[in-house]
Design a protein that fits this description.
Six copies of one chain form a homohexamer.
Chain A: H1 3-15, H2 26-34, H3 39-54, H4 61-75, H5 78-90, H6 95-109, H7 111-128
Chain lengths: ~140, ~140, ~140, ~140, ~140, ~140
Amino acid sequence: MNNNERYEKGIEKLMEFTTENDEASTHLKIVEHLKDIAPEVGQYIIEFAYGEIYTRGRLTNQQRALVTIASLVTQGTEPQLELHINTGLTAGLTPEEIVESFVQLIPYTGFPRILNALTVAKKVFSQRGVAVKGEEVHS
Amino acid sequence: MNNNERYEKGIEKLMEFTTENDEASTHLKIVEHLKDIAPEVGQYIIEFAYGEIYTRGRLTNQQRALVTIASLVTQGTEPQLELHINTGLTAGLTPEEIVESFVQLIPYTGFPRILNALTVAKKVFSQRGVAVKGEEVHS
Amino acid sequence: MNNNERYEKGIEKLMEFTTENDEASTHLKIVEHLKDIAPEVGQYIIEFAYGEIYTRGRLTNQQRALVTIASLVTQGTEPQLELHINTGLTAGLTPEEIVESFVQLIPYTGFPRILNALTVAKKVFSQRGVAVKGEEVHS
Amino acid sequence: MNNNERYEKGIEKLMEFTTENDEASTHLKIVEHLKDIAPEVGQYIIEFAYGEIYTRGRLTNQQRALVTIASLVTQGTEPQLELHINTGLTAGLTPEEIVESFVQLIPYTGFPRILNALTVAKKVFSQRGVAVKGEEVHS
Amino acid sequence: MNNNERYEKGIEKLMEFTTENDEASTHLKIVEHLKDIAPEVGQYIIEFAYGEIYTRGRLTNQQRALVTIASLVTQGTEPQLELHINTGLTAGLTPEEIVESFVQLIPYTGFPRILNALTVAKKVFSQRGVAVKGEEVHS
Amino acid sequence: MNNNERYEKGIEKLMEFTTENDEASTHLKIVEHLKDIAPEVGQYIIEFAYGEIYTRGRLTNQQRALVTIASLVTQGTEPQLELHINTGLTAGLTPEEIVESFVQLIPYTGFPRILNALTVAKKVFSQRGVAVKGEEVHS
């Protein structure tokens, strides 16, 4: 593949993670945001991350989103976590799956990272008008 | 639930992640290993991590294993990664899914963490006699 | 212990770390904050962290607060650091001990983490109307 | 050297990293900011970091700034990154070199840290009225 | 203070953290180990870390050791953790306090860091012939 | 560029960082090592890291090596640090510059990361038969 083809393929894949509306083009906004300072970085995200990595087989879009979210929670890089909770929802993860993946990480990262992640998720869910459905917990 | 019930429930869940043979009782070996120095820590892993967290709904065992592995790769805590590649395989993840989850993390953690994770996976796969099936990649 | 007993015991212990006034119920505010998105996480904090871990023997509340603060400074998880500077003060740590524990970490984490921690402490001390007493340093 | 001499030497070196104007005395503002809570920390930064470390030979000021920036990007400690992009520019690094050092880190830290670093750089460049000169990238 | 005085003061303080026997001079072994490659780093540890930081007031040697250990567990820097479990014991921390400080960190770092820290502690305790005294835990 | 061209370009650039002898083909050994488990990862390192990033302008090979080393020291990913001390030397960094870049990081990461990095450097320098030239330090 030449770079144009990888870019095309990346954009196409990226579209599977973005809605038409508000956050639709968050990634493209990042590309726009980087235009003056490091235009190639936006290009690498589309060509390499989306064009080469996300388009590989073996994992579904939802699995890729879950793995990505788990890494970002662990790193504590919150602006990217916000973006990928959005793309995860668009790719088909439910709010329950996203929150539950945070809960699963409590034994592996401790509570602080998870509390911060939940604050980010709460904001995203509210912006998108989605909610976690209640569930009976142990008693 | 009282502590005994949580412990029972934890052991039961843990068994879904362990085989009968070699690494079968790795977690129980950890409990044994901790006996003289911090017996309660082994107990907390079973009661809290397995008894309370892993037994919750909303995610399959495979999803929980994937999320856990992604966090351990990101942290670079290799002894635990080794254990959870084992439990992930037992819980039903394929070698391909595990390796692919590492590849998915390249754009989010960089290559060093992934290279170290692949070395650990290679060792585990060899011990268990499993292999990643070849796949045509871009050309 | 069943979960109710652990919850009770956790709340009781938590009260030793909270004052009646403003930040009094910060942890309970967290529980409130999590109610809609992940109510069990607030419960785990009280049952597991406070009910099981903090109620163990061998360390005083002040030692537990010091250890916790050192970990949060090292991680750079500032919202939780703010909370635990508050609980540490309520548990009996002096502002001097808290600041000194940051200074002790300079050789182990470098200056950036410590400067950020001092900014958080300055804010908390000001909110609570406490101050670090001056002390002659080397000359 | 006694502490006064180290302090003098540190201030002198620090001046090579600070302009007369706006951000000129950012480090000294930090010293001022710490005065009430931990005056010695400001002193250690000047005596130890600038007086002992930065004044050593073998690396130029620009090389020291580059190494420091690479570490801060990797840690994700953004307030300090902002400061050291400023001091790096004053020490003679070009905006292009700073941005390029971020790009070089993509394979080693992944995109999230780099995107956050670019946001910080964009702010600093705008405040100082400098810009990255465009450059043809691969096509 | 001039550098000689700081060095003297540092060595004196360091002695409070080292026994006469085996691990007695671990820090001095580090200085020896660094002699050919970076002799000043050993000097900075003694002059700055021990001569300036450890000799400050407000915290006891035990508190300093506890704070240091908590940071090293959180970072996962195990060679240094091994050293500081040793110096902590010499400074008067009990094996129980050290292990308990690990347990206290479970809610803040998760289990992996703590399991690795316990493995290091087990090795050190065995080398020094000390043991954690058993204690009834919840039932 | 198509993938073949990027691969070619990557290998060509990689050669500037590798000698003919012992560690000559360390990166290629990595590619070999990954062949059975994740052949594309070796390819991405050459195509993306070397073919796209390292071949950009604005920084010299030495500057790129310095920035990379600083990030790896900060992360504590030692196998990769060992590799990049080797490639840094081949690219023209002196042992003195490498060690000095570690010393520069003491105020930004603390001593533990630097001590571990020095141990790695000592091993690499010894394998390559190079040494840090002595230098008078403050007195």
